[in-house]
Amino acid sequence: MALIFVRTTVIFLTLLLIMRLMGKSQVGEMQPFEFVISLLIAELACIPMADTSIPLLYGIIAIVAIFILHQIVWLLDLWFKPMKTVVCGKPSIVINKDGIDEYQLRQNNLDISDLIESMRVAGYFSLDDVYYGLYEANGSFSALENPDRSTSSLSVTLIDSGKADKKNLAVTGIGQEDLDKFLKEQNVKLKQVLVMTVDGEGRVYFQKCGEKYKILNIGVNNKW
């Protein structure tokens, strides 16, 4: 038992040193390759700590090797800029002046609900609260705020990628007939709608697939 304690202490101190040498990004928002390295280091550290039949030096050498590979990738990032795009990816603009970029969302394995959730976390509760929205290479969401944002209540999603949300229709007091009438006025079918949200004042964010978004109004029976 004492041997395991000593081995764990040595591995802990080694990890602490290596993580400090790797820089602040390892304890903040990590790039994909840094996340992979962190997982590898954790796995390599566990084996020699628990298995006394494995020489402790093997674990230390493996961890140091991962650190050296990390530094090589970091240097390549500095000397050869395209390398950063290959290894880490690049930011993706998912909201622009025309609205949501469905293609960029699909490229990042995201959907409308993921985008709306990211916006709420960032403090934006309507899709037109920002001029531009993008996902950084590390997965965080950044936005250029619309200075004329006029959100007065929470927006809820009525249509997401051509499918109506019956639960939210009930919350807003908008019936299926009301929705059908609204879509008919816009000369569009349900399956052609990328997204439609409405707030408590009846303010609608409406975007047809492949087209620019519109700000419209619809009657709501409930306030929220």
Keywords:
elongated, four-stranded antiparallel β-sheet, five-stranded antiparallel β-sheet, single chain, 224 residues, alpha+beta
Short recap of the structure:
With 224 residues, the chain is of the alpha+beta class.
Contiguous low-pLDDT stretches (5 residues minimum) are: 24-28
What are the secondary-structure elements, in order, as H or E?
Answer: HHHHEEHHEEEEHHEEE
Largest sheet: 5 strands, antiparallel
| Nearest-integer average pLDDT | 83
Rg from Cα: 25 Å
How many β strands by DSSP?
Answer: 9
Helical content stands at: 40-55%
For the termini, the CA-CA separation is: 60 Å
Please explain how this structure is put together.
Residues 24-28 have low confidence and may be disordered. The termini are far apart. The strands form two sheets. Strands 6-5-7-8-9 form a five-stranded antiparallel β-sheet. It is elongated, with a radius of gyration of 25 Å. Helix 1 runs parallel beside helix 3 (56-79) and helix 2 (32-50) runs antiparallel to helix 3 (56-79). The longest helix has 24 residues, at 56-79. The chain is α+β, with helices and mostly antiparallel strands and 224 residues long. The protein has helices spanning 2-22, 32-50, 56-79, 82-88, 102-107, 112-121, 166-172, 176-185; strands at residues 92-96, 99-100, 130-135, 141-145, 156-160, 163-164, 193-198, 203-208, 214-217.
Topology record:
Elements: H1 2-22, H2 32-50, H3 56-79, H4 82-88, E1 92-96, E2 99-100, H5 102-107, H6 112-121, E3 130-135, E4 141-145, E5 156-160, E6 163-164, H7 166-172, H8 176-185, E7 193-198, E8 203-208, E9 214-217
Antiparallel strand pairs: 1-2, 1-3, 3-4, 5-6, 5-7, 7-8, 8-9
